[in-house]
Amino acid sequence: MTDRVGDTPGSKPLSGVTVIDFTHVLAGPACAYFLGLLGADVIKVESYARGDSMRHRGGTDPHRAADAMSTAYMTQAAGKRSIALDLGAAAGREILERLLARADVLVENHRPETMTGLGLDRDIVLGKNPRLIYCAMSGYGRGGHLENAPAYDVNIQAAS
Fold first, then answer.
1. Mean pLDDT in consecutive groups of 10 residues from the start of the chain, 160 residues
2. pTM for the full model?
3. How far is Cα 30 from Cα 36, in angstroms, rounded to an integer?
4. Are 37 and 25 in contact (CB under 8 A)?
5. Segments forming the whole domain that contains residue 139
6. Is residue 103 part of a domain?
7. CATH number for the domain including 129?
8. Helix residue spans in 26-151 (DSSP H)
9. Measuring CA to CA, which residue among 51, 53, 19 is closest to residue 37?
10. What is the pLDDT of residue 122?
């Protein structure tokens, strides 16, 4: 990142900021999408085995969804670069670690136990890149009895 983000005339406020988008479904990808609209270089990281589940749902064109390119996915992935990694393989882990080492922001919306299981919880990631902004979008917060509960729209509505 430059010393003064967005300093060039005509640049966007987040020009020069690199965001790792480690999100899925809707809220997380939307957050990263908006950061991209503000000029950030957003790199979406997906599972090599299955990709983002929104690839197969959302929108009105079943053919696009069957081809893993639903209109909902294409909308929220617009303007992002992407990479599919096998985080169970050493090569996939190495690539992700290199991306995180040079990133300015990580956006994730997984359950805390998922991130811990992947070795990507806040303390571990910040230990490798202390200047990283770690944006965790958990549905019910950290430390409560629901911290690892699914947090899709209908769950959140029922809880509220």
1. 61 97 93 98 95 79 81 88 97 98 97 93 96 93 86 81
2. 0.87
3. 10
4. no
5. 18-43+88-159
6. yes
7. 3.40.50.10540
8. 27-37, 62-66, 71-77, 90-102, 112-117, 122-128
9. 19
10. 95
